[in-house]
Predict the 3D structure of the following.
Amino acid sequence: MAKKSFDNFLEEIKSKFGDDVIPEPAIKSISTGSPSLDICTEIGGIPMGRITTIYGAPGAGKTTLALSIAREAVQSGNNVLYVDAENKLDIEYAEYIVGAKHNQKDEKFIIVQPNTAEDALNVLGLGIESKKFSLVILDSVGALAPKKEKDEVDFEKRDVALIPSLFTKFVRIYFHQINANNVAVVIVNQVRAKIGSYVGGYSTPGGYALEHASSLNIMLSKAEDLKEGDAIVGNLVKYVIKKNSNGKSFRTNTYPLIYGKGIDKLKDIVNFAKELGVITLSGPLYKFEDEKLGLGLQATLEYLSNSSETLDKIKKMCYNTVNKLNLFELEE
């Protein structure tokens, strides 16, 4: 049989397998709500059409970061599906951080609390298939309970690798659709101590399939407390980009998390810009290039809150400095 030749190979592929097998030239993103973290990812946040994993110890701020990403998505006109596998999400807090009521007719912010791991992954899959949501979030892998465990209720029996096998299947089924439908998938995960290990450390539930499938892995940990007088009002959250398929891995910094309010975006970018030398200090005076911003941090924050043009220039300069690229031209 003679081999078939093609005048246009790409058109032949599209006609047989569909347009969605051809990747888009540029990856779109959703902001994390932390300007410094957005800059460190190199694409302005978490990638769309990809899986992002956020993990860390208890109290590290994983859920708040996930909700912060949800807020950015909603504010950009996108719909969000939040699968609360832990069944302990503070709904009022979630609505406050996201800035939208849940489960309304407009379906901007949907919260689901499934019973089993299978239900959670099925709901997540339906959200991906629906093309209705630009962001789907699972919180968290460590809380997933397979149906077999719940049905048998045998605490002496150890079922091995049930969750990893579910995620292996989930990745195989939905990996292409996540990309084709351009859905950002955020998987929140916990950590487990490595019992018996000579070097200690931790592992994450979900198995290697989830680690391989994730384009962006962000590890969070609690850093120093933030105080107003003697009162602790928040803490710095340290992030480490453990894996980044769209940029450099192992970039690390902190962002300020204020209890009950979420990430302080303005303070985050000012601290980050100061660390990079984009904002300079002359005594207590904060300066950006030849522009005086304020005497002290608080005055600087107030000035920038009313000067969006200067703030935008600072963000662009930070991006160019971190990534050593002139992707943004600063206007005169």
About this structure: The chain has a mean pLDDT of 91. The two ends are 66 Å apart (CA to CA). The chain has two domains: 26-263, 265-332.
